[in-house]
Every structure is written in structure tokens, then in C-alpha cells.
Design a protein that fits this description.
Structural class: alpha/beta
Number of strands: 10
Number of domains: 2
CATH topology of the largest domain: Rossmann fold
Distance between the termini: 22 Å
Order of helices and strands: EEEHEEHEHHHHEHEHEEHH
Strand order of the largest sheet: 6-7-8-3-9-10
Strand content: 15-25%
Shape: globular
Low-confidence stretches: 115-123, 258-262
CATH architecture of the largest domain: 3-Layer(aba) Sandwich
Mean pLDDT: 87
Oligomer: single chain
Number of helices: 10
Length: 262
């Protein structure tokens, strides 16, 4: 099931990942399309984070290929994948607590900067022009995420949900072609989850950025996703619309249980 006419933007083919005698991924296939919001679910140890690590370059598969825009990127390190448009957030917060909200978001532009060290040290024309451009873009992200009143606040003094929002803003600073989110709502209260779900939808719909989301909150997954992939023991056991996945007996047995999936 795809339902998409375009070619996939990000694709994994027959991924195997082994750590000694342990197989974390077993023949996983995945295609992310330009207009897709794809969620990956499964019990702990199913291989979800291992798959994200292969997509973003933190792991290199034992077998199989990862492609971006049709090109094999399996050997590219994480910073090279970030530079071509694959942005990633992690389960934990990756912000700089001693820096302000705006400074944290500005740090996300580092791999897009063209001016060299010499220009930056002496504040020459190119570095000054870049700084102005990226400051303006950081302000656009701050406005988008409704952080205007907090732009100069130290991130370490903010609540957990706001820090996660800043983390998301820093990923947006990479100008991603694909945004990968690893359990972004872990540890949030219901109001914070609702806010972040709205921002994810806005990123997908208004900014037209495809999203790959690993999330344990089934209500969120079923509400915002257009495609759901279910993993168990390193394998994909279902890939379909939320409605069909909710009713798939293999998924019920493996993960959702016999009750209401929502």
C-alpha cells in the first residue's frame, strides 16, 4: 500500500542490521513519499530506533541500501545526511541549556553556512550577510512555533514541553526535505502532546515536509498519520492506513491488544 504517485524521497531496501549474533533489523523495506506523514509503531525492542538510525546515518546497515532522491546514501555519515536535507530529533532533549531559544535555533543552521572560518572570525561581508539571513530565518521558526516571548530565555529554564519545541525548531533550521522524529512526545503531559501534534501537522501540511514519526501514543498516531508501519522483532508486519492497521489482527496480537487501539 502506498497511494502515492511520486517516487519515494527516502527509501530503505532490504535492511538488515546485526550486532554480533543479535538481529535488530531483518529485511525491512520502507519508502517515504513527498506528501507523507508516516508513523512507525511497535513494542520496545521492535527495531524502530535502529531503523531511524539507519535512515539518518548513525548506524550503517549490515545489508541493504538507503536511498535519498534515488541516490545511495548508505555510507554517508549523519552530518552529510543532515546537509542534504534529512533532519532528525532524538528521544532525549538535545538543546544547549545555557543558550537562549534563538541561539539554539540558530545553531541548527551550522551545516548550511557557506562562509569560512576566516570570514567568521573577522566578521567580513559574507559572514555578516549569512548571519543576518539566518537570524531572520530563525525568527520565522520562532514565530511558527509560537516562541516569540521566550526567544531570549535560557532554554535550561524552560519547561520540558517548551524545550522539546525548541529542539524541533533547531531541526527545522536545517531546512529539511524529510523530518525524522523519534518519540518526540515522550514525557509530555496531554496539553503538551496536543500542542506538539498540531505543530507536526503544520510542518507537514503548511511547510510540505514529509515526516517520519516514531511514537508510542496511539491516539496521536491514529489521529495525525496517513500511513502507519508496524514493527515486531526487527521486521515490518504491517504497512497501511491507520484505519486498516487498527483492524489488522497481526497488529492487534503483537502490539495494540484486544481493546480499542485509540
Amino acid at each position: 500500500m502506498t497511494g502515492y504517485d511520486e517516487q519515494p524521497l527516502l527509501e530503505a531496501q532490504n535492511l538488515h542490521l546485526r550486532f554480533g549474533g543479535i538481529s535488530a533489523l531483518v529485511g525491512v523495506n520502507l519508502a517515504v513519499y513527498p506528501k507523507q506523514l508516516l508513523s512507525i509503531i511497535g513494542p520496545n525492542g521492535a527495531g524502530k530506533s535502529s531503523l531511524l538510525n539507519c535512515l539518518s546515518g548513525f548506524y550503517h546497515p549490515s545489508e541493504g541500501v538507503v536511498r535519498f532522491n534515488g541516490s545511495d546514501i548508505s555510507a554517508l555519515p549523519p552530518h552529510r545526511r543532515a546537509a542534504i536535507g534529512i533532519a532528525r530529533t532524538f528521544q532525549g532533549i538535545q538543546t544547549y541549556e545555557s543558550m537562549s531559544v534563538r541561539e539554539n535555533i540558530l545553531s541548527g543552521f551550522h551545516c548550511r553556512m557557506a562562509s569560512g572560518l576566516f570570514s567568521g572570525m573577522f566578521w567580513l561581508g559574507r559572514a555578516q550577510s549569512e548571519a543576518m539571513k539566518f537570524t531572520e530565518k530563525a525568527e520565522e521558526i520562532i514565530e511558527f512555533l509560537e516562541l516569540e516571548e521566550l526567544r531570549h530565555e535560557r532554554v535550561g529554564e524552560l519547561g520540558y514541553g517548551l524545550r522539546k519545541r525548541v529542539d524541533l525548531g533547531r531541526a527545522l533550521a536545517l531546512d529539511p526535505k524529510v523530518l525524522i522524529l523519534d518519540e518526540p512526545m515522550a514525557g509530555m503531559n496531554p496539553d503538551e502532546k496536543a500542542d506538539l501534534a498540531r505543530y507536526i501537522l503544520d510542518i507537514h501540511e503548511e511547510r510540505c515536509i514529509p515526516v517520519v514519526l516514531v511514537e508510542h501514543d496511539m491516539e496521536v498516531v491514529m489521529d495525525i498519520s496517513d500511513t502507519v508501519m508496524v514493527m515486531e522483532w526487527g521486521k515490518s508486519i504491517a504497512l497501511d492506513s491507520p484505519e486498516k492497521v487498527r483492524c489488522d489482527q497481526r497488529v492487534i496480537d503483537a502490539y495494540l491488544g484486544s481493546g480499542d487501539a485509540g
